[in-house]
Design a protein that fits this description.
Blueprint (H helix, E strand, L loop, with lengths): L6 H4 L2 H10 L34 E4 L4 H14 L14 H7 L2 E6 H7 L14 E5 L14 E6 L2 H13 L6 H6 L3 E3 L5 E5 L19 E2 L2 E2 L4 H12 L4 E3 L12 H14 L5 E6 L3 H4 L11 H17 L5 E4 L16 H12 L5 E5 L19 H6 L10 E6 L14 H4 L4 E7 L15 H9 L11 H5 L9 E6 L14 H12 L5 H12 L5 H21 L38 E2 L17 H8 L9 H4 L2 E2 L10 H24 L7 H33 L14 E3 L4 E3 L1 E5 L10 E5 L15 E6 L5 E10 L7 E6 L2 E2 L7 E3 L14 E11 L4 E7 L7 E9 L17 E2 L2 H10 L5 E6 L11 E5 L8 E4 L5 E4 L8 E10 L3 E5 L6 E6 L1
Helix pairs in contact: 3-6, 11-12, 17-18, 18-19, 19-22, 22-23
This protein binds 4-O-methyl-beta-D-glucopyranuronic acid.
4-O-methyl-beta-D-glucopyranuronic acid binds next to loops.
Length: 991
Amino acid sequence: MPQITSAAAERPGKVKTLLRKFVVAFLLISGLAASAQTADQAWLKYVKRIPVFTPLAVHPLGNSLLEQSAVKELNRNLGSIAGRDASGPGFSARARMGMGGQTIIGTADEIRKALPDVPVPRDLGPDEYWIYIGPCSDHFNGCGEHNLVVIAGGDERGTLYGVFALLRFPATAEIGELHRENPWRSRPAMPIRWVDEWDNPDGSIERGYAGRSIFFEGGNVRVDLAPVTEYARLLASVGINGCNVNNVNAAPQLLDANHLKQLARIADAMRPWGVHLALSVDIASPQKIGSLKTYDPLDPAVRTWWKTKVNEIYALIPDFAGFTVKADSEGQPGPSSYGRTPADAANLLANALAPHGGVVLYRAFVYNHHLDWRDPKADRARAAYDIFHPLDGKFAANVIIQIKEGPIDFQAHEPVSPLFAGLRQTNQAMEVQITQEYTGQQRHLVYLAPMWKQVLDFDMRVDGQSTPVKEIIAGTSFHRPRGGMVGVANVGRDAWLGSPLALANLYAFGRLAWNPDLTPEQIADEWIWQTIKFRDPVVVSTVEKMLMQSWPAYESYTGPLGMQTLTDITGSHYGPNIESSENNGWGQWHRADKDGVGMDRTVATGTGFAGQYPPQVAMIYESAATTPDELLLFFHHVPYTYRLHSGKTVIQHIYESHYEGAAQAAQFVRDWATLEGSIDQPLYEQVRDRLRYQAGHAIVWRDAIVQYFFKLSGIPDEQGRAGHYPGRLEAEDARLTGYKIIDVTPWEDASGGKAVSCDDPQIPNRKGATKPICTAEWKWTGEEGMYNIAVQYFDLHPGTAKFFLAQNGRIELGPLGQMWTADAELPSPQPHGDNSIRHLIRNVWLTAGQTMGIEAEPDRNDRAVLDYIEVVPAKRDPYLVPDLPCSEGQQVQDPVSHQETYEEIAGPELAGWAGETNVGTPIEGMLVELFHPGDKTPITTTHTNEEGGFRFTGLAPGHYRIKASGVVEYGVDEIVRLDPAAKAQLCLVVE
Ligand code: GCW
């Protein structure tokens, strides 16, 4: 059976009825031609997608800022027809029926007064919305001037959220429900839905990977806060209601009178979108900027200082949300200096904020980073519970303890923090990282929603009862009034998060904080529809699959089995550096030695951390036999030969997961390649380049971890891969001119631990060459043929080295990538896994006995450091995506495996289907033509069947091109001519 992509048939049906009511025409609404950073560049693109046609006359009942924003947003979606009279010229009879009437926006109270017949509920809560359609007897065509759409909010912000929900509805799974369950109502699961930004006043951002701050520059708030307003709009669209704008390694000067005035401007900029300003404060501020001798939380002068300061803040910012506090952590001052507790410090601030309705988010990220590494009982993971559990019940009502999702620090995979179950009389919020500090820093694709979802759904079994974390933080489990989620976002001036696909994480954070019952797949689909391509089944299923596979892939090629990320924990937190976790007080230990690996955190023989969970969970983690494989080494120290539930030994799992993870990263490149031509080209190229980089860096990770554990354990890889790299030619084995052999630190970050550095460049003999260069030259002893050459080198800064591929001493410059510059922006100035990078040169013809070499021009600190080259037959290179001979509106999936399948199977088939882009309806009767690439006359033709399917059988191995064309009828009276180049989605699969 040919494999037919299935997303088409199912999803879109749900929305059809509703769409018919609102969608009376396909319009392309031109977007705002914006060069500034705007929310439209994220998921709020009301461009080239089916707009939601509410009645064009939009009436807000109140005149608040938020209702004005709500109206503006609805009108944005309508584009050029916004505000026009649908009964006037330019509108067809059908449009009049669909878009006449009124859209009314207001709070529940306002609606009740103005429209007594509308059954708006009496119990709408804060931020809640209620959307009501009708009464109109003709759901299909609409009722012209009698159309009525009401968007009511429990408060003003609820009205805004209602508008965003309505605008999102064509992309959400909830759409069908809107019509069936008219009126449609939704409220947030938890009141605190904040983002934290770790922005410093100088404009830098701690752990930010998207350029400089949108809030600060040079010690002050920026003059241009337009991006801040746009950011708030983006946040509001997914229900985020608070934004803490400064780093938790707080800058006390921000509390002085001058800076507070500046900060009030940020609050003003975000206010129209219902996002309230919060600030991180330094608990030592009374001493640092208030000239008091102490910051002891129990000192009356300190108390007065904070009260006065808070009053000053509220005089400027009446809706100020509150403070975030990081104290007694990573060198920050804290109450422990005076023998006081976090409760003393939190309550001090809480009491000052309470009269104004403000809250304190006190972070449980408090630990000693000078732990004794030799002490087998010492354990950073225990810290939050040990410190905060005894204080349960001692915190003021407006204190919320902000707890990182895991007990260590945003690693690739951690267990849930046990503290969630350890605070029953205290408000709690879960802190997650949207910025990908330990998860690839946005250069790697890692969709984090599945990780967060795992934590949210984790059942703590408090008192032996079902107690999922999501219910604890929502406040329902222990009847706490305030709780929530906080995401460390660290957006910057570079397209918010730097990487286009990383924005799915910001989106998912907001959606989960609103409704933690949503699935990561659902959220991904919504986001893809709104951001990448609207309701295109192939695009949605391809990108969703990539997103869903991305976290497991990253975990596999970094730190599987609960070992944590295995990155450079004392440096960039980016590339591999396994031993950086050990022998120091930071406590991110994995305790790998020659016999085994893992931290013993059991009660019986280890640190006792497992005992911090409620008994039913503790029991699971206490024994290696019941601990899930994915967390085994977080809880247990086991020999490398220990057998996992999967049947593999630990060491074999380490080897294999790294090869599988890296292969998956390579697969992302191929998956994405199938979308070329069907999505926005600049977006396509930007993501393609990132994915190619990631595929190369995943190999760096793979090789570092595998060679490290291979050497340490001395146990061979059952599959023979560890230590064997077919086609690899080490730089240190080459004939070198000017290059010097160096040791790389850590050794595992270079193949064989060594590289060559161009420390003594020479003026070459080559004609025309003027710049000093270094060369590394190898003799090719393999067979004659077409090869791809991967060059692994270290891209250092400052400086932009140049590289050339030379054959038999000659450089040929062509389109194949034989010349390139090392201009990437990567961490670390020294050769390191952080900056090890792979450049691929395709289709190089090599003859036996020839020489091939790399010539390099160093530049400043970039000494063109070379690790190795790898020569792989062109056809077999799994990291290569060949330039497809196919184009013109069809997608070929997985071209490489096609090629391989072709060779193995006699008489292969090409099969696929055609569906209408926007709704996915199968298209029957399209003419499908099969060509040899480059030919104008088809080899054969066929027509799509009832299901839109077609099939060509008995084909010889090779590449083909397919073209489809036809006319399709859609809806009742709409005729849509499909342009096969743009609209028909063909998925071709060979079996
Ligand atoms: O993950 C660690 C980061 C620090 C950060 C700290 C925290 C702002 O490496 O950069 O400090 O967490 O959460 O406070």
